[in-house]
Amino acid sequence: MDIYSSKLSPVLDIGVGVFLIVIAGLSIVGNVLVLVVAYRRSSKMKPPEMLSINLAVTDLGAAISMYPLAALSAWNHRWLGGDGTCVYYGLVGFLFGTASIMNLTVMAVVRFAVSVNNLSPREQISRRTVKILCAWIWLYAFTWALLPIIGWGRYGPEPFGLSCSLAWRWMKVDGFSFVITIMCFNLAFPSLIIVTCYFGISLKLYCTYRNCIKEGLQIPNIVKMNRRLLIIAILISASFIVSWTPYGLVNLWYVLRSGYPLPPEVTLLPCLFAKCATVYNPLIYYTFSKRFKREVRHLFTLCCIGSSPSQAVVNQSRDSMVSQRHNQVTVIGINQLLDRSYCPGDANNAPG
């Protein structure tokens, strides 16, 4: 039996190819916009925001290096290139997937560290530290991606034949320890850390809100901003975990219950759902970040409609003034506001 031939109907193959091209296009456009906006405001960027850029790089890399090959294979009704491209596809998929989940984990830990200390992100973590964290993320992901090449685990085709990943079906005996290890260190433990960190941040913000309401104070803008940033971070992390969890569960089924194979169509859906994870982040930024939405609209005006140089200078100056005023308020007020973020109960809970 040809392991690289499609196990789906020809019509479904064509539909899968179209779907992958659409997802690739959306992902490339969205993440390129994230990188362009980041470049335009690089001088004002806080160090933790570099992790968001790193996340956009992983999503963009996956969309460019993987999805077109899978789409062409779907239209060909057979995986193109055989063993060589299959190993390549599995390796880069594992690389970018691991880099993404670890990037989200580091983002959660950094946000938690900044939140529990009454300092601004610029003071709490340096640009050099973030660069070291980014380098560690890629080294960690690259190490895991190489392990199947050197003999622990293996890469192979997916059950439906139009994609390649870890060869889950053939790792029940010789690769079972590898499967359990990657599920723990690259999905379960990172997810637990992410949930714990954002729960801690949410609790601190809740205490701040409760304190303001009790004292009859207006909710400060800095607290509202932190709430919006928290929503963005939680949605980004949740979208990735929710996208990849069905895929992980289906592959665990193949490892633990290899004698009861699932229909090819059933194994296809979680795979396609996981690939959609590269699209969500720019949509979340555009929906919840006023600054990102403003920058994207400004870029659209410059590229598609055409804006005079003088108007572009005016818009740039206005955005700069708003950003400077916003940063000034943040630095001045964050210590005073977050110092009051205790949860009131009895008198012993109040700050001295």
Automatic annotation (TrEMBL):
Record GO cellular component, one term: membrane
Keywords in alphabetical order: G-protein coupled receptor, Membrane, Receptor, Transducer, Transmembrane, Transmembrane helix
Classification via PROSITE patterns: G_PROTEIN_RECEP_F1_2
Residue span(s) of domain G-protein coupled receptors family 1 profile: 30-285
Gene3D superfamilies linked to this entry: Rhodopsin 7-helix transmembrane proteins
Localization: Membrane
GO molecular function: G protein-coupled receptor activity
Main location per the UniProt record: membrane
Mode of membrane association: Multi-pass membrane protein
Short name of any one Pfam family annotated for the protein: 7tm_1
Membrane spanning stretches: 14-39, 51-75, 87-114, 135-155, 175-201, 229-247, 267-288
Protein name: Opsin 8, group member b
Originating organism: Gadus morhua
This protein's encoding gene: opn8b
